[in-house]
Amino acid sequence: PFNLCILIGACLGSTDAGTSISILARLPVKLPEKVFDIIKFESSINDPSAVIAYGVVGSWILSEAFKTGATSSDLSIASNLTFRSLTDNFVGLFSTGILVGVVFGYLSIWMLKNLNIRKPQLLAAGLAIVSINYAISNYMGGSGLISAFVSGMVLINLHKSTDISIIKDMKESMMPFEELAEMFIYFSFAARIDPESLFRMLPLGLICAFIMMVIARPMSIYIFQPFSSLNWRESSLLGWCGLKGSVTLALSFEMVDLISKAQVLGANFSPEFAQNIQSIIFITAITNLFVQSISISSVANWATTKAELIEKV
């Protein structure tokens, strides 16, 4: 069904900037700072946008399932799936999440400046800030993910304007934890996927990964090339930095529960159908991560070398 296709697109829409930046930062060549800024900004926008798009499409699927009698006929469910309620939820998630994120960002910078926090304690302080921020935003009806991103943007901007070294130290202390957490999420999700479905969907997953890496993402970037300050080689590098992260896998598991609950294709067939889609998304994410993480350094060297030659000429 068309609505499930959009749901799959929402799962695959987010990108992971952490892996791309960690690889590019270790290269001996000097990459333009604007490339790093675009990758960071794209990731910060893609993750909450994918979550919100998934929620909207998921509500649409549940609403259609309710109309056809596939789900519970509880009136409270129907009242929460109207266009007005979905719009109100969408606006509430954004506005409350942004407001809480800005306020908490300034509170966080005040605490970091006035509390005597040593460098070994910054990891625990950073995790505490993110957790409390996320919880408060969710409790107030906003998006915790958006709130966390907005707080991070406030902290980074204040760091650039006031040269607060403690924020830079916190960022460095959290990078190894971020990489370890990403690996743990990949392994834990892989352990929950049905191996039979994984092997059965392997050809479709590889085809989907090829389309995402070679066609979909590069084309979406080249379309806006006339409006960009990047040259086409830098845009090619940006097009190869679309690695999928933990948000993609997390949404795929949410999708399994949603399709099973909505019974889109019937009570007997929907769970198996959802498992197959989950396997395709997992294969796409792993193939994307494996191929692009290995080759991204070569693409960056190629783009940088060509750019330097053009400047010399």
Secondary-structure class: mainly alpha
Number of DSSP helical runs:
13
Largest sheet: none
Number of extended strands: 0
Mean model confidence by pLDDT = 76
- Work out the strand percent: under 5%
Low-pLDDT runs of 5+ residues are 72-79, 307-313
How large, in whole angstroms, is the Cα Rg? Answer: 21 Å
Gross morphology: globular
H-E string: HHHHHHHHHHHHH
Terminal CA distance reads: 54 Å
Q: Percent of residues in helical segments? A: over 70%
Briefly say what this structure is.
The protein is mainly alpha-helical and 313 residues long.
How are the elements arranged and paired?
Layout: H1 2-12, H2 17-25, H3 33-67, H4 75-79, H5 83-114, H6 122-139, H7 144-162, H8 165-192, H9 195-200, H10 202-222, H11 232-239, H12 246-262, H13 270-312
Structure description:
The protein is mostly helical and 313 residues long. The chain contains 13 helices and no strands. Helix 2 packs parallel to helix 13 (270-312), helix 6 (122-139) crosses helix 8 (165-192) and helix 12 packs antiparallel against helix 13 (270-312). It is globular and about 60 Å long. The N and C termini lie far apart (54 Å).
